[in-house]
Amino acid sequence: VLQQIIKWLMFIGGKFCMYGNECTKASAQSCGECIQPFCEWSRCDEIKALESKGCSKVENPRGNITIDENKPVTNRKKDGSEKLKPDQITQIQPQKLTLKLRAGEQQKFSLRFKRAEDYPIDMYYLMDLSYSMKDDLENVKNLGTDLMHEMQTITSDFRIGFGSFVEKTVMPYISTTPAKLLNPCTSDQNCTSPFSYKNVLSLTEDGKRFNTLVSQQQISGNLDSPEGGFDAIMQVAVCGEQIGWRNVTRLLVFSTDAGFHFAGDGKLGGIVLPNDGKCHLTNNMYTMSHYYDYPSIAHLVQKLSDNNIQTIFAVTEEFQPVYKELKNLIPKSAVGTLSANSSNVIKLIIDAYNSLSSEVILENSKLPEGVSISYVSHCKNGVSETGDNGRKCSNISIGDEVLFDVAITAKGCPSPGKSETIKIKPLGFNEEVVVVLNFICECECHKSGIPNSPDCHFGNGTLECGACRCNEGRIGRVCECSKDDVRTEDLDANCRMDNGTDICSNNGDCVCGTCECKKRDNPEERYEGKYCECDNFNCDRSNNKLCGGHGRCVCRKCVCDANYTGSACDCPLDKQPCMASNGQECNGRGQCECGVCKCTDTKFQGPTCEICPTCPGVCAEHKNCVQCLAFKSGELKDVCESTCKNFKPILVKKKEDLPQPNSQPFLTHCKERDANDCWFFFTYATKNNTTEVYVVEELGKGRHLTALVQCPAGPDIIPIVAGLVAGIVLIEFAKFEKEKMNAKWDTGENPIYKSAVTTVVNPKYEGK
């Protein structure tokens, strides 16, 4: 018995301590729990606190990264003599890593990507052979050799294949009458029987064979406008062996002049089974179109991504909007405008390939629960991006090298004792990076634990890391309690605060007379205190942020950061936002409360009480007071002493003696006119809650010595009168000269002369 007592004293007084993240109190039941974030234990504390308590051995496991496979990226030239197989070319480095993750501890590594020159390409041409594509088929018949020639400028290792599609072979997509099943076109047209998808030519280096087989193809027909292209794409993606895909750049060119059916449309033909995403080619024909529905877009995206296939949609102008929307849903895809007869298909393919290959986008497989990943891209010209843009780099030419920083964090221990594997790969490329995740779920001292130790209340637990890990059904510091006994009245009394009725404040369980606080779904939120009466998430909020984002919630009260106060730490003590342009707090017309001006003068508003929509200008506002105080004149001269009490003018001799703008924070120069039409000059400024007015006093041209005198002089009458008289004389002389020029009579006879003799003729006179 004495030996047991000594061992127990050594146990409870030992210096075997565990370090955890923000762990200072009492709910962690083992060292393994302690090293997870946001848990607590009597021996679980910050490392400085443990050292101050005299702990000689501290359990503080750290994560690390091991690079398992690290082949350098390939450097070679297209015209070089070295000919490499596809699996000998490396474009991403490293290829495999192993990470040891401790909860809450981030592990970072870098990935290097470089586009290899002369990288092999497999291209499969999938064509709509419904009747509307008849003229297009003629132009595609020579595509093999022409495209082979064009692709030589990009790669010396190019293969091409061909497939065709029409529609599901059931009503209402096609006519099922015997005659229409033989020839779905009109009687004067020779068409082949309708089919869903046919692999005409697997991938080959023989461009002439491509031309020969395509030349043998015939147009078919169907009833509705949308085609069954999605069935064909699915088979091309999943039937890698029949198509002949290699682990190289894989391009799928989808050529059509119509829309597409997708999941759910099969119900029109009585087809209700979802597409199974498996290969169903028999003799190169898709045989299950009548059995499985069309695939969904999401299903296609998954299969194209899984098989590293980049899609080029070569469609006519009419259906560009539809396929551009589809492109936005399918990563690493492009859309090109196909001419009415497909005459531009080669240029379309080359342009689309260049666009797709110039962008690298990283994607990762599904992450284990509680594991997060983030990316930072370092692209050309020193451009770095984070978030979603951190996954990609654009405008990458052959030979360019870019870097990606990858950070992986675990919130807990999702797979104790097991490894998890995730894969990171550039979309559209066959290479990938394998990342093996091992989680630190236990301390090193866990390995030397003593099962059924007598120190754990007669063998009711395992003694490990200086504490007891209790067996099933036992609880307590040394496993001294049975779960069947923890709800007794005597034990519960120790878990009630101030003799209240709530056990552990309804925020925990009473275990052997001690409160063990409940865990929250959010690991950052926790209950604490002897009776679980405190928490760090029920404090006042501001702008939907706990403690306004400027403090910590401690036992339901905000402890504010420096320069903040208030129940929600939403009141900044910094008065800088309240300072007006004149250097005064709230322009001297208000009070600064929590960094915001409360204007006491109702005429003023704005963030610093400087805006006064109804106020006259400073000069006009104080003009009359300046007149009466400085010159004993103006409208207020009789009531000057009672009305103008805010300032006393300071007289200066000349305008040059007035204060200048750079001498005070806020200064206004004024020029006003009095009743005698004379100008006077003064300045107005506020300084330290006082007003300063300087007025010019100088001898002017007026009648008296004033502070303003610049009066206009009276007019000189004599020059004005002389000018008017001279003007009138000149005008009359001009009129005379004009009349003289207009005279028309003969100068030899007076036109106003009349003879004094009058002759009268007698009408009776007959001349005798």
Automatic annotation (TrEMBL):
**Record domain Integrin beta subunit VWA: where:** 30-443
- State the source organism's domain of life: Eukaryota
The record's GO CC annotations read: cell surface; focal adhesion; integrin complex; synapse
Q: Please verify whether the record's keywords include Nuclease.
A: no
Cellular location(s): Cell membrane
Integrin beta subunit cytoplasmic domain residues are: 730-768
Where in the chain are disulfide-linked cysteines found?
C31-C39, C34-C55, C185-C191, C239-C279, C379-C393, C413-C670, C441-C445, C456-C468, C465-C504, C470-C479, C481-C495, C510-C515, C512-C547, C517-C532, C534-C539, C553-C558, C555-C586, C560-C569, C571-C578, C592-C597, C594-C640, C599-C609, C612-C615, C619-C628, C644-C678
Q: Which residues form the Integrin beta subunit tail domain?
A: 619-716
Concerning Pfam families, the annotation shows: EGF_2, EGF_integrin, I-EGF_1, Integrin_b_cyt, Integrin_B_tail, Integrin_beta
Q: What is this protein called?
A: Integrin beta
Query: Which organism's genome codes for this protein?
Result: Electrophorus electricus
Q: Which gene encodes it?
A: LOC113568006
